[in-house]
Design goal:
This protein has 15 helices and no strands. It is 57% helix and 0% strand. Helix 1 crosses helix 4. By secondary structure, the protein is mostly helical.
Length: 341
C-alpha cells in the first residue's frame, strides 16, 4: 500500500510475501562485519552501518528505472529484520539463527531473535499479531525528521541504502525514534526513586529543570495520539496473556492519569504519544531497551522506501535545499592572530 499507493491483489501480496522469504538472508561475508563491532555497540549504530554496506552487494539498484523495485524493496525490508536479529545475537554471545522459509515476517524475526541451539522459540499467534500491529503503527507518519532525511538524500540521487541509513541515524535521536527508549529509562528512574511520580510531575513543570516527561506531546497531534490508544489497548490484552506483571506499566498508567488531569499539561496539549506505551509492549515481548529504536526503524522502513521512491521518480532533477535564515552576529572585523584574546 505505501510503496505503490494502492492495496495489492491477492497474487501481488503472495508474490511480495515470497520475495520477503527469498531475500531474507544476508551475504555470508556480511557476518564478518558483526565481529568488527565492540560487544557493547548500540544496535542502531550497527543497523546504520550494515544498511549502508548492503549497497556494496547490490549496486545495480542505481540503474535507471529499476525494473525489479519490488524485489529491491522486499530485499531491504527482509534483510533489515535479519540484521537487527543478528545484532541482538551478537550482543548476547549466541550463535546466529538463520531465517526460515516456512515462517511469516514477524514470526521469522521472533525466531531469529529468541531461538537457541538448546531451546527452540515457541511461536505464539497472539504475540505475532501484536508485533505485526506495532510495526504497522510505525509504518509512516508524514514529513518527520527521519523521513525528511531520507527524501533529502534521495533528492541528491543517493542510493536507497544510503538514504535509509540516513533515516536510521535521524531516527536514533531522543526527540524522534529514540523517545521510546527514553520513556522506559524515565519510568525506570521513577521506579528506582521509590515510585515518587508527583516529584517528577513537578520537575516536568519546573522551567528551571531539564527533566522532560518523555512520551507526552507531539508535533502533529494536539490531543491524544490515536496510535497511543491502540498501544495502550495492546498492553491491556498482551501483558495478561503473557502473564507479565511489569511495574513500569503501573507507573505509566499513573503518570498518564495524573498528567491528563493537570491543567499544565492540558493547556499545553501534552497528551501521550505512541512512544509512551510501545516500549512496555516490546519489553513484554523480550525486546531489550537498547533495541526499541531498532524496532521503530523496522516498522518505519516501508514508509521510508515509499518516500525514497516518490522522490526519485517525481523530482525534476533538483536537489532539496532547505532555506536557512541567518540569526548570528552581524559583520565582524578581522583581528590579527597576535591581537586575538
Amino acid at each position: 500500500l505505501l510503496i505503490h499507493g494502492k492495496l495489492p491483489t491477492k497474487n501481488e501480496l503472495l508474490q511480495f510475501s515470497r520475495y520477503l522469504n527469498e531475500h531474507s538472508l544476508i551475504h555470508e561475508d556480511m557476518q564478518h562485519f558483526f565481529t568488527g563491532f565492540p560487544p557493547n555497540s548500540h544496535p542502531m549504530a550497527i543497523l546504520a552501518a550494515m544498511v549502508t554496506s548492503l549497497f556494496s552487494f547490490y549496486p545495480h539498484i542505481m540503474e535507471e528505472g529499476d525494473p525489479d523495485f519490488d524485489i529491491t524493496a522486499a530485499r531491504l525490508i527482509s534483510k533489515v529484520r535479519t540484521i537487527a536479529a543478528y545484532s541482538y545475537k551478537k550482543s548476547r554471545g549466541q550463535p546466529i539463527v538463520y531465517p526460515r522459509q516456512d515462517l511469516t515476517y514477524c514470526a521469522n524475526f521472533l525466531n531469529m531473535m529468541f531461538s537457541t541451539p538448546v531451546k527452540a522459540y515457541v511461536q505464539d499467534p497472539v504475540v505475532i499479531t501484536a508485533l505485526n500491529k506495532l510495526l504497522i503503527m510505525h509504518a509512516d507518519h508524514e514529513q518527520n525528521a527521519s523521513t525528511s532525511a531520507v527524501r533529502l538524500v534521495a533528492s541528491a540521487r543517493g542510493n536507497l541504502y544510503a538514504a535509509i541509513s540516513a533515516g536510521v541515524s535521524a531516527l536514533w535521536g531522543d526527540l524522534h525514534g529514540g523517545a521510546n527508549q527514553a520513556v522506559i529509562e524515565m519510568l525506570q528512574r521513577i521506579r528506582d526513586d521509590n515510585g515518587d511520580i508527583q516529584k517528577y510531575i513537578k520537575l516536568a513543570k519546573d522551567k528551571n529543570s531539564s527533566f522532560r516527561l518523555m512520551g507526552f506531546g507531539h508535533a502533529v497531534y494536539k490531543n491524544y495520539d490515536p496510535r497511543a490508544k491502540i498501544a495502550k489497548q495492546l498492553c491491556d490484552s498482551l501483558l495478561p496473556h503473557l502473564n507479565v506483571k511489569d511495574p513500569l506499566l503501573d507507573i505509566a498508567l499513573q503518570v498518564e492519569e495524573i498528567a491528563l488531569k493537570d491543567d499544565y499539561f492540558i493547556s499545553r496539549k501534552l497528551y501521550p504519544n505512541i512512544d509512551f506505551y510501545t516500549g512496555i509492549l516490546y519489553r513484554a515481548l523480550g525486546i531489550p531497551t537498547n533495541m526499541l529504536t531498532v524496532m521503530f526503524a523496522i516498522g518505519r522502513l516501508p514508509g521510508w522506501i515509499a518516500h525514497w521512491k516518490e522522490t526519485a521518480e517525481t523530482q525534476s532533477g533538483k536537489i532539496y535545499r532547505p532555506r536557512q535564515v541567518y540569526i548570528g552576529p552581524g559583520e565582524q572585523k578581522f583581528v590579527k592572530m597576535e591581537d586575538r584574546v
